[in-house]
């Protein structure tokens, strides 16, 4: 197909503009990455570092040797691993149960679950529930209230309904129980859906912030995002100053390089997990979205 000169100019102009926009959007990520590896002396000497003369791991070594940061990383890792596992168990079990048409009261339960996705109770009711359960200043306060999602249950239910009923009937003829069918047949066939929703849960738990602000007052169980927020807040704030002093009291390292290194460390785990699960997203989510 022949393309006129005006079309070529237009396409070239559009591509150039898009390339410039992409570079502008990628620059903050590049700057964070570069500053995190910049020597403290070089960072203090230059007004802006675009490419460091000396690459160093000073900020990373200090953060990874700091008890405050290491403890927060461990808390976030616990939330991401244990919370994701428990959420997948509860969500998949509930979705499989609701996908069985022989379940009595199935329609009413689905309506009640759907209502949780339409109406938000706000902040006070969940806080009162957590307080009455005695979970204030407990790490389980960051897991139990968000153990499952009504929307994820509905989507996963649609995925289970796409599995042929003949497989379940054949398993029952062989003497398999409902739990055996769920564990040995349904779950192995649902790995794409589990992988997709598992990553969604893992990202949510890893980024736990607001609920930690509400329910956690103890410094020893603060997740990583709360500690990171205390680093990123404006240096004029007293809370930021306390955190900065706590993080850099022993070593003269610029607070900005510590901030950038903390950002990189907090984002790398999810970036490493995502490529391994990306291929399951389309199949795991789309199938559940087009079924009842």
Task: Give the SSE map.
Layout: H1 5-36, H2 40-45, H3 58-64, H4 67-99, H5 106-118, H6 124-132, H7 150-161, H8 165-173, H9 178-189, H10 191-206, H11 210-215, H12 224-232, H13 238-248, H14 255-277, H15 281-289
Transmembrane segments: 12-33, 68-96, 108-127, 139-160, 181-206, 257-277
Pfam families: BPD_transp_1 (PF00528)
Family: Belongs to the binding-protein-dependent transport system permease family.
Describe it for me?
About 70% of the residues lie in helices and about 0% in strands. It is an all-alpha fold and about 290 residues long. The protein folds into 2 domains: about 55 residues, no CATH class; about 220 residues, MetI-like fold, CATH 1.10.3720. About 25% of the residues are buried. The C terminus is likely disordered.
Question: How would you briefly describe this protein structure?
Answer:
By secondary structure, the protein is an all-alpha fold.
């Amino acid at each position: 197909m022949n393309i006129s000169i005006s079309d070529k100019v237009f396409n070239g102009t559009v591509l150039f503009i898009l390339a410039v926009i992409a570079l502008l959007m990628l620059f903050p990520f590049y700057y964070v990455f570069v500053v995190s590896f910049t020597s403290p002396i070089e960072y203090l000497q230059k007004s802006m570092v675009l490419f460091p003369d000396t690459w160093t791991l000073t900020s990373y070594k200090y953060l990874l040797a700091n008890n405050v940061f290491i403890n927060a990383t461990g808390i976030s890792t616990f939330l991401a691993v244990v919370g994701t596992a428990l959420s997948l168990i509860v969500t998949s079990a509930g979705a499989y149960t609701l996908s069985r048409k022989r379940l009595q009261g199935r329609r009413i339960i689905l309506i009640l679950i759907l209502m949780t996705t339409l109406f938000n109770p706000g902040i006070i009711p969940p806080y009162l529930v957590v307080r009455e359960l005695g979970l204030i200043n407990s790490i389980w306060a960051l897991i139990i209230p968000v153990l499952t999602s009504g929307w994820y249950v509905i989507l996963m239910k649609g995925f289970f309904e796409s599995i042929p009923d003949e497989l379940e009937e054949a398993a029952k003829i062989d003497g398999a129980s409902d739990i055996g069918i769920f564990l040995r047949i349904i779950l192995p066939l649902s790995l794409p859906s589990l992988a997709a929703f598992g990553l969604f849960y893992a990202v949510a738990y890893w980024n736990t912030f607001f609920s930690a602000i509400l329910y956690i007052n103890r410094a020893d169980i603060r997740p990583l995002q709360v500690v990171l927020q205390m680093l990123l807040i404006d240096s004029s704030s007293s809370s930021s100053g306390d955190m900065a002093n706590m993080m850099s009291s022993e070593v003269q390292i610029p607070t900005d390089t510590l901030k950038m290194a903390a950002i990189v460390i907090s984002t790398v785990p999810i970036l490493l997990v995502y490529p391994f699960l990306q291929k399951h997203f389309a199949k795991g989510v789309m199938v559940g979205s087009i079924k009842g």
